[in-house]
Each structure stands twice: as C-alpha cells, then as structure tokens.
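Retry 2 of 3 after timeout on previous attempt. Resubmitting structure tokens to design endpoint.
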C-alpha cells in the first residue's frame, strides 16, 4: 500500500492557531483523499506560518519532508498554497524526487504544470500584499484609525470563546461516547466507527478520527 505524510498550514494564529477550523478542515480533506487513493497515513503535521518562506523556517514542514523521504511516502496537501507560495521552493522540493499530491488537483503531478501553478500562486501572494498596502495607505490618507487598539485582548477573547465552544461540544458528545464504551468499544478507531454509524458529526461537521475522539476524552476528565 502506498504511504502518505500529511501537512496542513495556516498563515497566522488569529483564527485559533493549530486548533482553528481551517486546520481541522484541511485535515479532513487530506485524510479523505488518502482514503480514496488507498494510501496509509504515516504522519500528519500542522503549522502556523506564512507560505512565502521555506522549510528552514517551518519546522513542521521540515519534519513532514524528512519523514516522507525516510519512508518513500507521498506528501499530501489540501491545496498547493498550503505547501508554499514560493515557486522556487516548490520546484526545488520536486527535484528531491518526492511525490507531491494536492487534494484539489488530484490529477496534477507533472513538474511543468505544478511549476506554472506555483508561479501563479506566488504572484497572487505578491498582488495581495500590494492591494493590502494600497488600501491601508488610502485609509490613512482619509484619516481612519487602523488596527484594534486592544488587539491582544480581542485575540485572547477569541481564543477563550473557541475553547468554550469546544468544551461545550465535548460535553454533548461525551454521553454518547460513554454509551459506546459501555457496549464494549474502547479503542479510538472503534469509537470513531460507532459515531459515524450513528450519524454523529464532529464540531466542524466533518469526519471522525482517532485524534478527534482523543481530544474530547482529554477535555472531559473521567
């Protein structure tokens, strides 16, 4: 069976960091992709970092690359820009011989097409930066006060709200998990299958995985 290493990335932590819905959504996408492609997942790495820098500044990506090389596995990403917005980095990574797969473009594997798409992604990142700087300059010229003067407090409040939502969800799911355990199913994978069979959805409405169940069990003490 072909093996895979997964990597998920968001650019900053303002949406909850590694616990954000975006990371969870990317994870659901890559795992579903591997299931369709009949690939065994050997590892999964999540990171909060810009996509314009290389693996030397992204330790989790470096770990994912190292594991993929060591095990001759395929590197899987939900989208190309989750790997990088730097065409040179992507092309250099291809030169190592690693197989790269992107869930939104499962048919694209050749160097030429990926190179063109990487260049387009890099240009879009550059254009986005220019648009943002232009808009901020215009706003300052109009006398608008930019930014949140209490940004740290706002981020802390958002993080607390996210934590509270997760805890409340865990409380609603825990009775179901306890019922499943009482029936003799105690492995994380077994609980996943039972929750799926009952039609129970995760907090994000996605698929159940062992890590998701583990997070809930850890959130609610026995």
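Retry 2 succeeded. Sequence:
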């Amino acid at each position: 069976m072909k093996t895979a290493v997964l990597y998920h990335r968001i650019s900053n932590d303002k949406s909850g960091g590694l616990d954000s819905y975006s990371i969870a959504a990317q994870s659901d996408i890559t795992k579903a992709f591997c299931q369709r492609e009949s690939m065994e997942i050997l590892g999964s790495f999540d990171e909060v970092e810009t996509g314009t820098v290389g693996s030397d500044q992204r330790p989790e990506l470096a770990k994912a690359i190292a594991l993929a090389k060591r095990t001759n596995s395929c590197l899987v990403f939900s989208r190309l820009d989750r790997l990088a917005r730097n065409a040179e980095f992507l092309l250099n990574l291809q030169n190592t011989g690693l197989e790269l797969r992107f869930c939104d473009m499962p048919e694209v594997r050749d160097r030429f097409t990926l190179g063109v798409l990487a260049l387009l992604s890099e240009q879009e990142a550059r254009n986005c930066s220019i648009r943002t700087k232009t808009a901020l300059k215009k706003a300052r010229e109009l006398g608008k006060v930019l930014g949140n003067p209490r940004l740290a407090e706002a981020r802390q409040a958002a993080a607390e709200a996210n934590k509270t939502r997760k805890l409340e969800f865990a409380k609603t799911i825990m009775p179901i998990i306890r019922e499943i355990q009482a029936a003799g199913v105690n492995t994380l994978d077994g609980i996943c299958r039972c929750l799926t069979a009952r039609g129970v959805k995760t907090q994000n409405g996605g698929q159940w995985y062992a890590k998701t169940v583990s997070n809930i069990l850890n959130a609610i003490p026995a």
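Attempt log closed. The first strand starts at residue 3 and ends at 10.
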